[in-house]
Amino acid sequence: MRKRISMVIIMGLIVCLIHLALAGPAGALSCSCGPFIPGTGNWTIVSNGDFSNGLTGWLNEDPHNRGSFAISDEYAISGDTSAKAIPSESFEGWGFALYKSVSVTPNQEYVLSGFFVRDCHASLYLDLADASFEKTVAASIPYSTNWQFCWDYFTVPPDVNQVNLRLCYDGIVYLAEHGYFDDVAITPANEFEPPLGVNPLDVGLVGYWSFDEGEGEIAHDKSGNGNDGTIHEANWAIGAKGNALSFDGVNDFVQVANPNSLNFGSTIDFTMMAWIKAENFQQLYPSLISRRDPPTYTEWPPNDPDWIPIGNNGYLLFLWNDPALPGHDGNLSGEMSDGAFQGQINYLSNSGNLFDDTWHHVAMTGDRDHYLKVTVQALGA
């Protein structure tokens, strides 16, 4: 069934797990999303890196008069406050920063780390720089009110004993949005331990629906981002492991609202995965995971007024099934927006026919700089 939706999991098959993740930014070795277990992990906070003494020791860097930092009690990992980035205008490009000089030991390996709340579209990151090297650690998940703990390793060059540490806020910035930093740390690598998370799922996770409830009309999002889905008509069933949902291919689907955390636009890298078990049926191009925008013109295509294209910010993972174009039935396929007017990038795999009543793990990766790719692995492979 093709219908106008925001974010929907809609299938004529059985699915036991849906998993959406954003690719981590370049330079960020790892990033996990809380909640975190208090008292676990070990890192060395830089002087006033927990902002318990306000912004003492930190300096504002705002060459374009685009914003500033202030102390906030809205979020805090340790103590009662964090540093809040406050833009003074909406803009795109270089933004503003909070910075200080930090002493380091030449030739020593360290870990740069920090906690972030990226309740915004803007890029939120730590930048550690000297004339001879640079290290950046960035928050992965946009529009999330959960703390993200991100870190990466670096080795100090032999002639460096002082580096500039910056808390940066730039990119695509909207006036009413903000970001938060706390517990900024530079730790000797042999002493560093990341905190343990109550729900330590994959890097950059924005949605995780296990369909393990077994009853009810809500598919709960276990990523911690609150993207719960409403189940329409689908029936509970036995999955590859645990429970699953069975869809009839006519009017069964799980619908999620339209949160910004699931809007990847035309620039954000992403991966989506699912376990599926499909039987052959007559529906054209059955969708596994899709996000579609309403059309911006009235005749697309002229002979199918109910068809809604993926639009400028959409994506679609589906199985090929078209009698008019035989030879690829059941092959895993994908589409993602390229940012142009209703433009899209398509990929038809040679996975073979997945309408085989067998469990398969399927995935789609959108790398904006290189490719759109879909992959399949059978259960037990």
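The record above closes out task 2.4. Task 2.5 opens with a second protein, given below.
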Amino acid sequence: MAIHRAPDGRVRFPGRFDAPAPPGFERVELRTTAEKRTFERQMNKTEHRRWEQSQERQAEFFEARRKEQRSELFAQLRHLPPAARDLAMAAIERTNKRPSKRYDAGFHMEALEMDASNREPCTDPLARGKLGSRK
């Protein structure tokens, strides 16, 4: 298996094993299962970091709006009967304790995870009759 890696860490996946690396990219061949599994772990970590950064940006963006909405809500709660206020506060507390989102990039290499029993047949006309593709 081959990938194309840029100095900044970006990765491209060539459509064919023999495809040349684009300018600024280095061709990297992953020859062993251990190298491929290591690459999968690295990609999953990279994607998880991207997701975390996205979540942080989103939280910053919405924090001011949430504060404003909460202050309006608490102002309205003062006018409710005690039982209704207790119910609303319990709902707010439950929302605050809700677990944070989880994320799994799920990056995997089809060659390691799939076989003829769990993938679609090859549709590449150039590969017909080669590489064990089905006709």
